[in-house]
From TrEMBL:
Chain ranges of the Glycine N-acyltransferase N-terminal domain: 109-260
Signal peptide feature range: 1-26
Name of the featured protein: Glycine N-acyltransferase-like protein
Gene3D superfamilies to which the protein is assigned, alphabetical: 3.40.630.30
Highest taxon, organism lineage: Eukaryota
Pfam families: Gly_acyl_tr_C (PF08444), Gly_acyl_tr_N (PF06021)
Enzyme class: transferase
Entry annotated with the keyword Acyltransferase: yes
Keyword Signal: yes
InterPro entries membership: Acyl_CoA_acyltransferase, Glycine_N-acyltransferase, Glycine_N-acyltransferase_C, Glycine_N-acyltransferase_N
Keyword list, A-Z: Acyltransferase, Signal, Transferase
Amino acid sequence: MGLLVLQQHDFCFLAVLCSIWDLSSPTRDGTHALQSNPCLLQWKHGVLTGPPEKPLSFFLAKQINFIILFLVSQCVEESSDLLPVSASGKHVHSPHKLNIFALKQDLFFWPNILLLNCHFTELEMTDDLDHYTNTYQVYSKEPQKCHEFLGSPEVINWKQHLQIQSSQSSLDDVIKNLAATKLGKVKQTQCFLYMASEAGKKLATSLLEAKKLSVNVLCILMLTLSTLDPAHAVLVNKLWYFGGNERSQRFIERCIQTFPTSCLLGPEGTPVSWMLMDQTGELRMAGTLPEYRAQGLISYITCVHVQTLNKLGFPLYSHVDKGNHIMQKVCSNMQSILVPCGWNQWNFVPL
């Protein structure tokens, strides 16, 4: 079971995106273009590149985002018809000086099973205790039959503290059995999964333009719409439910450096409300300072962030903790679609 670098003539991985991206015919210089306005990726002489002003990981995150949403929308089972069955396993690797997040996507094919595994490269996953980086997004056509592949060290490094994320709760038995085999303990977390609807995207724009959001007017007049700076990671980390430690702060810093963010700055220039995006293209880590809550700011910043990412061509989705009733209400007000399969995360710790 080998992992092969995707070459110029081998578009197995890109086949997943055929119904989403416009894959043009190769030009005379051997270039293929992946077009999704206003972003452009090029596959030239075996190397995936993007415009120099954007980190390539920004675009790879967009690809993963499309793949995840596509598989979720197709309920995974219907996705196999899009994929050739001749390959054993492939990933995209692109050396790039701005690729702050070095991402890789592995596709595994065998007679009756499909496995998609999105994660950082091995060069990134060097800290055995950093489960924020040691994260895998896993999707399988037959979850109950992928025990052997998920157990392989070529697929997942079970010697590390790690996270496995998926929309498939049916992976639970497989992962728990593997955890026992690998002499570790595992904890499953289940959250709600929301996808932005077209009506919700239009609503965000119309509410902002018409200024019809239920926001404290005096409060909003004191604030300035802006984006986060890496130095703000300390504040975001302090309020993030899944963070609060040194490794999570480093992860947040990299997200801020690489991907779009939105925030409202207070009179002293400190963020009071914000929203980020992670390496999978998911809306993440929204928060508001306690003294600024119950003012409608999180709804406002959500509309701003949705509008920003929608202009960049991102499908929009996020997971929300089952105890976070405020964000559930925000998603409902934004007419987001509650995806029946939900969102799952397994945290594994080797003993």
